[in-house]
Design brief:
90 residues, alpha+beta, Arc Repressor Mutant, subunit A, two-stranded antiparallel sheet
Length: 90
Amino acid sequence: MAKKRSRTDIIHDILLYVQSQRHGAKPTHVMYKANLSYTQLQKYFTELEAHKLIERQEAKDKETIHITPKGINYLVKIVEMKAFEETFRI
């Protein structure tokens, strides 16, 4: 049986994809890449935006998601934490 992803894993997936998109990520693409439902995605977006890890931008009826410098720093810390866990097999 497959292990469920942790909240941290989901946030990692969201931030990593958003960071990879130079001109901002479309919400639908984030939803597919993070393997989330629309409702789940909106909850994560609300939380990440409240903590200023992402920002939403609207232009010509098109919403894009951008990672903030704080979000990049948070993503780096998640990657470091994952590497630490793998090193010590925790």
